[in-house]
Structure to design on (414 residues):
């Protein structure tokens, strides 16, 4: 799906959605072949329009076109910046050059961030306090600070007349949904993987702030019928579902799943790991397998998406020179920085040639960031039948699910 969409959400609130299929790596880091949307919103009032956020600067011309379908830029009175990151604020300099009379509203930190990120001066800026209200043309706007979701200056806007909460990054997801709203169950089921992937890659380090800010919202007793994030679907049928999904995912609770990540240079580690995979499947849990081999490297973002709700991680990798084989070393660095202190249980499987150093180093990296290493299985060269039996016994000891169902093994993930 290419291009942009302009659609009425409810009342006088409209969405301007750009479907970005050009960006291969979000934030230059996370591979997103599924694409991403940038959702800006516009509220029409009798005293002028209020624009909420914008798009990435690459789509400036298209953004002006989309706005022109709704209002003349001269009619925009306020621009609310929920979050200064350039995927939402990239079009801000363009809009302010077209209409310098616009007052930018945002967190007290937002002005400096916007000016430094985009290299321009904002003529009119009004900082908004947590709980501050503004009335524009009879429409009340309530501003709520939502710190560290995922920057410190993130805010939400609640519009009581249409019972709508604009949340920027919070409650968003990757991909380009076929629909604007959460109207199609099949679409929702497909979309939720990309919501989880977005949460762990973008907000993951700050996930403990998710339940804190959700509780803050609940204490306000707002009547929320629509949640409109800056990425992905607008939730008008199940707003409570996306809130609960974010809240539950942030807790990193296991869901009867084992995720296996391994690097195998010449097949020895893979052979040992497959014994663990087979044993895990015998116990009825879902098994996700992510290899790094001579003809395939798995996607870091997808791995993290399965790590967050796994009960057990199996990590395999050989000693390489005097350390950990590079793909596993790199992934452990990413995983423990994006998802620290999860308390996830880990079994390490490692091979070595002349010296076994990798397993000890993997254990140190994991335990330093709050992971719990249950066992280490280490062997020289290729695994023997005794090594494989030991792996099966250890897996059986640590997995509590007892129903037999080999269909739970899933194909190696890409």
């Amino acid at each position: 799906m290419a291009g942009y969409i302009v659609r009425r959400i409810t009342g006088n609130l409209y969405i301007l959605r750009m479907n970005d299929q050009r960006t291969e790596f979000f934030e230059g880091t996370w591979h997103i072949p599924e694409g991403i949307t940038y959702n800006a919103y516009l509220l029409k009032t009798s005293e002028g329009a209020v624009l909420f956020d914008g798009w990435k600067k690459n789509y400036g011309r298209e953004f002006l076109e989309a706005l022109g379908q709704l209002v003349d830029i001269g009619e925009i009175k306020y621009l609310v910046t929920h979050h200064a990151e350039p995927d939402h604020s990239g079009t801000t300099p363009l809009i302010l050059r077209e209409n310098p009379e616009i007052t930018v509203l945002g967190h007290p930190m937002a002005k400096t961030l916007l000016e430094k990120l985009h290299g321009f001066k904002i003529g009119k800026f009004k900082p908004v306090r947590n709980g501050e209200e503004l009335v524009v043309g009879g429409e009340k706007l309530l501003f709520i600070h939502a710190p560290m979701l995922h920057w410190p200056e993130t805010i939400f806007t609640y519009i009581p007349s249409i019972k709508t909460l604009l949340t920027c990054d919070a409650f968003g997801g990757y991909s380009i949904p076929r629909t604007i709203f959460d109207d199609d169950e099949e679409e929702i089921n497909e979309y939720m993987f990309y919501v989880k992937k977005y949460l762990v890659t973008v907000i993951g380090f700050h996930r403990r702030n998710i339940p804190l800010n959700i509780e803050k919202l609940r204490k306000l007793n707002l009547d929320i019928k629509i949640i409109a994030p800056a990425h992905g679907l607008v939730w008008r049928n199940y707003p409570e579902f996306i809130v609960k999904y974010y809240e539950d995912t942030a807790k990193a609770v296991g869901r009867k799943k084992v995720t296996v990540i391994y690097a195998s240079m010449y097949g020895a580690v893979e052979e040992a790991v497959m014994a663990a995979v087979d044993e895990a499947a015998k116990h009825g849990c879902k098994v996700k397998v992510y290899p790094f081999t001579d003809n395939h490297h798995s996607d870091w973002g997808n791995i993290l998406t399965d790590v967050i709700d796994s009960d057990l991680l199996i990590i395999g990798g050989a000693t390489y020179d005097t350390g950990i084989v590079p793909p596993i070393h790199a992934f452990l660095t990413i995983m423990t920085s994006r998802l620290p202190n999860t308390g996830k249980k880990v079994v390490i499987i490692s091979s070595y040639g002349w010296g076994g150093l990798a397993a000890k180093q993997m254990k140190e990296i994991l335990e330093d960031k709050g992971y719990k290493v249950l066992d280490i299985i280490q062997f020289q060269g290729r695994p023997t039948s005794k090594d494989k039996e030991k792996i099966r016994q250890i897996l059986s000891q640590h997995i509590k699910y007892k129903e037999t169902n080999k269909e739970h093994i899933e194909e190696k993930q890409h």
Notes: Residues 402-411 have pLDDT under 50 and may be disordered. The CA atoms of residues 104 and 125 lie 5 Å apart. The longest helix spans residues 185-203.
